[in-house]
Amino acid sequence: MDAVNEERYASGPIGVFDSGYGGLTILKEIRRALPQYDYVYLGDNARAPYGPRSFDIVYRFTLEAVRFLFARGCRLVILACNTASAKALRTIQQNDLPQIDPSRRVLGVIRPTAESIGRLTKTGHIGVLGTVGTVSSQSYDMEVEKLYPGYRVTSEACPMWVPLVENLEADGDGADYFVDKYVGRLLEGNETLDTIVLACTHYPLLYGKIRRRVPEGIRVVCQGEIVAESLKDYLGRHPEMERRCRRGGTCEYLTTENPEKFTGLGRVFLNEDVIATHVDID
Amino acid sequence: MDAVNEERYASGPIGVFDSGYGGLTILKEIRRALPQYDYVYLGDNARAPYGPRSFDIVYRFTLEAVRFLFARGCRLVILACNTASAKALRTIQQNDLPQIDPSRRVLGVIRPTAESIGRLTKTGHIGVLGTVGTVSSQSYDMEVEKLYPGYRVTSEACPMWVPLVENLEADGDGADYFVDKYVGRLLEGNETLDTIVLACTHYPLLYGKIRRRVPEGIRVVCQGEIVAESLKDYLGRHPEMERRCRRGGTCEYLTTENPEKFTGLGRVFLNEDVIATHVDID
Predict the structure, then answer these.
(1) I need a surface site. Which of B18, B159, B171, B272 has the fewest CB within 10 A?
(2) What domains sit in chain B, N to C, each tagged with a CATH number?
(3) Which of B61, B160, B277 to mutate to test the interface with A (most CBs of A within 10 A)?
(4) Is B81 a residue of the active site?
(5) What is the rounded distance in angstroms from the CA atom of residue B90 to the CA atom of residue B108?
(6) Which residues are named in the active-site annotation (chains A, B) (predicted)?
């Protein structure tokens, strides 16, 4: 086998990228559904959060992360971050990937989430709670419109929720005001809304408070299981990619920040201690 | 005059650096006290906030900013950011500056603030409210100990205050919980404390709420005027540097983020519209 073919059939870990810690909520569900593969998780914690940043910056940082994970041997990279999926995925898939290596793949979290919530809603009116970046990109509106023409999406940006989670205030009384504020705004005047998606990987840590604020008849959906099921389905439909996902059941954690800091906050998201390694990606 | 001497006597704008928008509260007071000079403000908004980041990352980002401002002609750079002053200033002054250009200067905000609050306290017990980075560095404790041996410093990290200010929640009811929480912790069991410094450039925007939470007999000090007075004093004592600060009264605003975003939030800190230019510094 020559070098070109060897590279073409070589396998590597599945890359899971997030700006920070939130993607760990997605990784957890992916590993539960697909424990047989090797994974490498990369958190760009030195430059997180991406939520409030502009298109140009999110695109540049995300592309650096994807290139880095490709150089680590990943054939498949999941952007486990709604802001990166919203602002960078399309350009990376259409402009960068063909030049870097057309046989590799980068997948996001918005398409599978939109597919899934479209199947769940009965009224055809969906609520999206996300970062300023995700909401202003209108990515959910566009995906839902493509998949389910005529369905309605109402969105609300929740900029205080990531700081609350990262400062371990998600269970404290100080979070109530901001759960009330953003959920209240989403619901006001939108009586037909029957399904709400937590479209930021940090938000599942506020699930209890959000669930209590939302009327019982409205479903509140987290993305972890949806993304995991969608990846399982994708690998079933793409055996050529499945063969390139290395088997072993391991998971390596990489962070652009100090690894001790990653371990401390990683525990909040995973309920277990992880050993992380520092890397520079820019 | 040969090239070396020309460079040695050339003048440039005074550089004012902050990780984000907070340094604008310092810039405002500096320009009020010293309106005759040219200024260039640099906000590393694409990678802000620095408050929660590790020593290594804050040092690396700050050094990049200082080198960038030197390349723009600045002979004097003010780190108008407590986290950068706490975690990067000493190493830059001692290790990097002698190699880059020993005739240039980088000054921080902690030394002048410590000098000033040491003169204000009567009990010798000072309170410091700052970011996790500033508090964990113990920079205020060390500066006060050097200048006023025997004085006591009690610190409290206020990690939710920067997100509150940057999300325009400083005047909202949601901020009350976090003002109560951090100020309450600072005061608890510290009856001798008579002077509190707001040791983060964002915190003046929460001054009203903080002032109402602190008993009347305790002074609450913002840094802007202190840093401005200290710079005036420094330039008076260093005529060779004063001559290298270009006169003209202008101010240029640079940001690593999208300039429209800078203009929007800049208004909150300066009460006026500023036109910013995008730059890459890494």
Answers:
(1) B272
(2) 3-108+225-278 (3.40.50.1860), 110-222 (3.40.50.1860)
(3) B160
(4) yes
(5) 9
(6) 81 (proton donor/acceptor), 200 (proton donor/acceptor)
